[in-house]
Amino acid sequence: MKFIFSLFLTLILNFSCTACNVFSPIDPPSGDTQTLSAARDALDRGDYASASKYYGNLSSITSDVINSEEAFAILSENGMTISVFMYTVILDSTSSGKLVTHLAQALLPIAKVGTRLNIFHAYQKINVINNLLLRGLIRFITSLSLTAELLAENSSSSTKILQSDIVVNPNQCLSSYPLFASSPGCLKPSSSHFISGSSAITLPSASDSQMSGTASLQMIYASLTEIINGVTELGNSTSLGNASTSFAASILTNIVLPDPNTSPAFRGGLVLYGIGE
After folding, report:
1. What is the dihedral of CA 123, 128, 134, 138, to 10 degrees?
2. Could you tell me the CA-to-CA distances from 222 to 81, 161, 204, 255 in Å, in that order?
3. What pLDDT is stored for residue 224 in this prediction?
4. Is pLDDT of 43 > 50?
5. What's the pLDDT tens digit per position in 139-165?
6. CA–CA dist 209, 212 (Å, integer)
7. Fewest CB within 10 angstroms: 28, 133, 168, 246, which?
8. How far apart, in whole angstroms, are the C-alpha atoms of residue 39 and residue 49?
9. Of 36, 239, 247, 233, residue with least CA distance to 137
């Protein structure tokens, strides 16, 4: 049943997509060119497990495949299953902000520091993966998942990610663009759990202690940076990856200021580019 449903979705996407990689999901790929096309096609439809398999077929290092599978297993155990990811990609293929929002909403029931650290540990599998494409895939998917989980932790609702949990007055904040930094509407609302964070975080060298405690905008900033780095390793070759890079880079034009500043410019950027409802 799962195979039939996945095949059905694949056929629909291939017939409806105007700029997809050319690869038939019915025939198994042969040769590096078809295998790479199959991997990119799988990622564009949110099937990260198949993408991992195809990218892995381009690698002669078995341990890379094993480590990528372990990363995906951790994600699945912490709410980011293939079905959740695929459904969200199909639902929000035109807006990375909405995609991240809906991924975050899927994680609301289990959002907590423990889940955050587990996803961070899945991300750390990049340190033992040599194949560039597989490493880029893991970096991209886990960073996207970590961004979503942090947003879920910040939510005051049990069902939705609200813009009013990010900025105090979404309409006033958005109308002040591009002057978010001086807008009262972009300040931290009382419902927000996010702090700015006392110092910058670099995800590749971050420790568990840095990624523990209160969720911070510095953690979001670090995760968005790694989304871009993951897509770069993948070769900027998928529509999902390119859209995610544009989304992350746009938000990162705004800086996170150290506590006690509430970083209104960065908060405004999150809302402007589609985070929250």
Report:
1. 0
2. 23, 20, 9, 11
3. 97
4. yes
5. 999 999 999 999 999 999 999 999 999
6. 5
7. 28
8. 10
9. 233
**Cis bond before residue 178 (omega within 30° of 0):** yes
* 27: number of Cβ within 10 Å: 9
Q: How many residues does the chain have?
A: 277
Instruction: Tell me the β-bridge partners of 216.
Output: 195
pLDDT tier for residue 16 given thresholds of 50, 70 and 90: very low
Element (H, E) at 241: helix 239-251
Q: DSSP letter string over 23-62?
A: --SSSPP-HHHHHHHHHHHHHHTT-HHHHHHHHHHT-S-H
The token pair that represents 24 in the structure block: 């038939």
pLDDT at 192: 93
The one-letter amino acid at 34: Q
pLDDT tens by residue, 115-144: 999 999 999 999 999 989 889 989 999 999
Could you identify the residue written with the tokens 């405690």?
213
Quickly count: other Cβ atoms within 10 Å of residue 183's Cβ: 22
pTM: 0.81
Amino acid at 168: V
Say how far apart CA 150 and CA 194 lie, in whole Å.
Answer: 9
What does the pLDDT read at residue 215?
Answer: 96
Q: Is 99 exposed, middle or buried (0-12, 13-18, 19+ CB in 10 A)?
A: buried
| Distance (Å, whole) CA 199 – CA 201 | 7
Give me the long-range contacts of 91-97 (CB less than 8 A, separation at least 24): 93/239, 93/240, 93/243, 94/243, 95/243, 95/274, 96/243, 96/244, 96/246, 96/247, 96/248, 96/273, 96/274, 97/247, 97/273, 97/274, 97/275
